Amino acid sequence: MCEGQIEELRHTYNVARPLESYLSSISGKTASLYSTAARIGGLVSKFDRGLVNALTAYGEAFGMVFQIVDDVLDLSATDAQLGKPSGHDMVEGVYTLPVLYTLANGGVPASELADVLGKPLNVAERDKALSIVRSNGGIEAAIELAEMYVEAAEEACQDLPNTAATVALRFAPNALLASVR
């Protein structure tokens, strides 16, 4: 988890942050937390190695979905919906997946966004950046990647016994994703 946080801090205010850095950071932070919890649950339950590995894979994929959805909500929800100012990560110089995708799309919107970012933002700059990210495909592209991790979580569940708990595990990542669709 510390390595994931350090990776994030290394790229604070970096408009050229590579996508791989973002994915490595959330894998090291959020996804590792979920995968470790799922793995420990399997070990404590004395499951065989195959089931423990399936739970670990599920936790990793679920953690990726969780963090991408959280990052999408930070940029797509209103201040009132969040109970805090939207775009907080961006204001703090943490450029998450929707921002990175918007920057990668190129063109005038990407240039305008890059011009605003790279430093702490005031409210007007935050609002301009939010408007650009919300209207130029970054959020939709992030949701598409989250869908791939939902599929990975579902695939990991195929190796689990057909129980009520497994049904709940299959449901959880889709429920998360539904909050941003």
List the helices and strands and how they pair.
Layout: H1 2-10, H2 19-44, H3 49-76, H4 79-82, H5 88-91, H6 97-104, H7 107-116, H8 123-134, H9 138-157, H10 164-178
Q: What is the CATH first-level class name?
A: Mainly Alpha
What is the name of the CATH architecture? Orthogonal Bundle
Question: What class do helices, strands and sheet pairing give?
Answer: mainly alpha
**Biggest β-sheet strands, sense, barrel:** none
Tell me the number of helical segments per DSSP (H or I, 4 or more residues long): 10
GO biological process, one term: isoprenoid biosynthetic process
GO molecular function, one term: metal ion binding
Family: Belongs to the FPP/GGPP synthase family.
Keywords: Magnesium, Metal-binding, Transferase
Characterization of the model:
This protein is mostly helical and 181 residues long. It has one domain: Farnesyl Diphosphate Synthase, CATH 1.10.600.10. It has ten helices and no strands. The protein is elongated, with a radius of gyration of 18 Å.
Offer a quick outline of the entry.
GO terms for molecular function: metal ion binding; prenyltransferase activity. The chain has a single domain, classed as Farnesyl Diphosphate Synthase.
